[in-house]
Amino acid sequence: MHPTSIHNLEGAASETTAAFSTSAIPAASGSGLSLAGPGDYFALMKPRVMSLVVFTAICGLLLAPGAMSGSISLISAVIAIFCIALGAGASGALNMWYDSDIDGAMARTSQRPIPKGVLTPRAVLGFGMVMSVAAIWLLLVATNWVAASLLAFTIFFYLVIYTIWLKRRTPQNIVIGGAAGAFPPMVAYAAVTGTITLDSVILFAIIFFWTPPHFWALALYKQTDYGRVGIPMLPNVKGALRTRREILFYSLFLVALTFWPVVSGLGGVVYAIANAALGGTFLVLAWRVYRSRAGDKPEVTDSDTLYAVRNGNQAARNLFLYSILYLFALFAVLTVDHLFFAGV
Amino acid sequence: MREYRNQPTEFAAPTREEIRARSRRNIAIALGLVLFLILIAVSIVMRTPG
Predict the structure, then answer these.
(1) ipTM associated with this complex
(2) Is A133 on the interface with B (CB under 8 A)?
(3) Which of A153, A272, A252, A159 is nearest to A210 (CA)?
């Protein structure tokens, strides 16, 4: 190129740069390059959800026969847990990609990277896909094809079955979609054994039946948020009373199910006693939600009625918060009992 | 005749914040790739009999 041409181009560039940096592009983004840092990508992976996934996966791994006697090396076990966390994070990112149109309208999700304008949906989709492939491939290399296939199915289930298909179509969305969150201990169990057994199915079932009361308790006091964006959560579609009844029903079934490890030998006396206390508290809180007015719309807008509704919502909030603690404690006690008291 | 179609005529210089953010992303991607390769290598070594 002739030097004069270069000079001309540079001149044009500097003029255009001035135009871009002052008026054409908002001040936050001078040239259109993303301002997103690694922290924003980490936020896509739903770290709080990931912590529960990682914890239940560690428990599933430790509960697998042979986990403590050399069936899997420590390094492979750590890599397996890392892959499950990565897969869960990838699912979270893909979920945020698909739900980016509604996340901005809900207070709880409005500060996620896409509605905040830090990342584009396309970038998030790419990130989620790459992380999914990396997690599945690494798990395959580190452990076995059963665990890798289960992880792949989990990601598929969360994105396609739950996020794309069920979430916006049926109030039973989280009942069926809850399976995605229930797979991690099963994946970890398969990483050790290379198979699926009744014990790993029990671990799956406990989380599966824990999910509805957990999420519906949240939905009872956040239903306006879900309703505004057209997500058919049970309180919006079937009403608060039906939701409170189903919370109680699922809670009863859940607590009954949590005694199955005692029958199968996965847990022992310590687990049975702790589970009775944990499950009893869960049922008391579920009963309080059932008896409350959580999720009811106030008939009269005087201060007393508003106060009563707030009281009702408090019961739902208590159950929601306790349910998180409950699942952590249940899996922790089961694992400790299995490793140190019930014998391997 | 000269073909100008694929030659850019407008430029936008990234701001300092954008360059810093891009550098952080590049470093994170590089570290992620290195970590991934190490984990793959370790997994293969761990599973190799003998």
Answers:
(1) 0.76
(2) no
(3) A252
